[in-house]
Amino acid sequence: MRAAVLHEIGQDKLEVLDDVEALGFGPGKVRIRVRATGLCHSDVSAMNGVLPQPAPFIPGHEGAGEILDVGDGVTGLAPGDRALICWLPACGTCPACKRGQTHLCLAGFLNAGTPNFKRPGGDVFGFAGTGTFTEEVVVDAGCAVPIPDDVPFDIAALIGCGVTTGLGAAINTADVRAGSSVAVIGCGGVGIAAIQGARLKGAAQIVAVDPVASRREAALTFGATEAVAPGELADAKQRITAGEGFDYVFEVVGKSATARTAYETTRRGGTLCVVGAGAMDDHLKLNMFELFFDEKRILPSMYGGGDVLQSYERAIALWRAGRIDLENMITHRVRLTEINEALDQMRTGTALRTCIEI
Which of 118, 40, 46, 79 lies closest to 356 in space, CA to CA? Predict the structure, then answer.
C-alpha cells in the first residue's frame, strides 16, 4: 500500500513508499479507502515538532473515502458507505462528553500513541490516530462519519478539520454578534473558514490580516470587508474602531507574538479567540493589571468548540444552501506522489487548502 511517511521529526520532506500496511482491523474498527485528504497546517506542525507526535508517522487527518470493511460490533456502517474521517471522536462516557463538551474528549488523542501502520522496518504511527496521506487507513468506528452521496470527497475532507475549526470558532466559541467588528489574523484555510463564520453571524466589518497578498485577495472573496498586511493592522484598528479595538479578534497562526498582537488589537471588554495550535514552549505574556483592567475575554477554541458531529451537519447544510463557499477554498490539487509540492504550497502561503487526491 502507498503512503507518505515522515521518518524523523524535523525533516521537511515526506517519502512516498509502497511497502506500508494498515494495522489494527478487528472488532469495533473500520477500514477506509481514502479518496481525498487536505493538507492542514497541523500536519506541518507535527512534522517540525511543534505538535507532539511519535515518529515515524504518516501525516494527514483531514480525509474522506469509502468504507472497505467493518469489524464485529460495528453498527450503522457498511462496506461501500462514504465516510468523513473524524480525528477526534467522542467516547460518550468520559466527564467531558457527559458535560456536553465532546470536542474535549481525550479518547482520540490516546489513539495517537498506538501504531496503526507497519513497514518491513517496523511500526509506523498515524498522525492524530489517523494518518490520511495513504491509500487505506484503519480507524475506530467512531472516526468514520457517514456523509450523504451529494457531498464530494474533497468537500467532506475539508469539513473534517479546517472548516469545522474555523466556522466553529466564530459561531460556537466566540458567538460573534451581528453588527460587530472582527479581525482575523492568519488567512489560510482555517482563517478563511473563520471569516465565513463571522459573515454568517452578521459581523459588519471583517478585517483579514495576512502577510501573503494572494491570501488577502482571496479573503475578500470569502466575506472580508478589508484585507491588510500585518504592518497595516494598527492603521486599520484606528480607522475602523477609532483606536478602541475590534469586538472580536481571531488568532489563527498559533504563535505567542501574533496572539499578543491580537490581544492588543481587541477592545476592552472584547473577545480574543485563539484558534491556532501552537508549541508547548511558546508562552503568551500578559501582566496581571491589564488582564484585570481590560476585561478582555480570552477564549481558546479547540476544533471549533462544539459538538463535532453537529458541526459537520451544520457545515454540510450551509454548503448545500450556498451560505458558505467550500469549493473555492481548494486552490491546489496534487496526487499523493506530489505531496512535497503541497508542503511547499503550504509553507509559502500560495495555497489556502491543497487537496491530495488518492
Answer: 40
pLDDT tens figures, 205-256: 999 999 999 999 999 999 999 999 999 999 999 999 999 999 999 999 999 9
> Cell numbers 507518505 correspond to what residue?
4
- Cβ contact 89:107 at 8 Å: yes
Residue with cell 480525509: 63
Stretch (H or E) spanning 237: helix 233-241
| Cα–Cα nearest to 349, from 200, 242, 191 | 191
Please provide the DSSP assignment of 36-54 as one string: EEE--HHHHHHHTTSS---
Q: Please state at what angle helix 189-200 crosses helix 213-221, rounded to 10 degrees.
A: 30
- Quote the Cα angle for 349-201-174, to 5°: 75
Residues 7, 9, 10, CA angle at the centre, nearest 5°?
115
